[in-house]
Amino acid sequence: MEAAKQQTQTHFVLVHSACHGAWCWCKLKPLLESHGHKVTAFDLSASDINMKKIEELHTLYDYTEPLMEVRESLPPGEKVVLIGHSLGGLNLAFAMDKFPKKISDIVFLTAFMPDTVHKPSFVIENVQII
């Protein structure tokens, strides 16, 4: 029975948005776990209980560092499903670039989805108000 459970278990890594923390997944995390999945939710740098100070963050990569630490801690061969909300989509892009073989699927939940052609501010600069 335990072997069958491990075969269907998916590891979800939940990435919050700006001005949030791991707490924002308080309803989704137990729901996924109740279906036998492994779920990791954590605070990005200078968010909620993460003790890093905002003044110490100089780049978006600095903000993303806790996600990179989660990815580096995975055993060889383990792949995860990354779910990012809003600004968390940019954190997913960093993880995809650095650890493409450790990701099975990615979910951009109403999130920024960067591309490789335009600069990050492209959408904001090209919004047309009707």
TrEMBL record:
Pfam families: Abhydrolase_1. Gene3D superfamilies: alpha/beta hydrolase. The keyword Ion transport does not apply. Keywords: Hydrolase. SUPFAM superfamilies: alpha/beta-Hydrolases. Residues 11-118 form the AB hydrolase-1 domain. The keyword Transmembrane does not apply. GO terms for biological process: jasmonic acid metabolic process; salicylic acid metabolic process. GO terms for molecular function: methyl indole-3-acetate esterase activity; methyl jasmonate esterase activity; methyl salicylate esterase activity. It comes from the Eukaryota. This is AB hydrolase-1 domain-containing protein. It comes from Camellia sinensis var. sinensis (China tea).
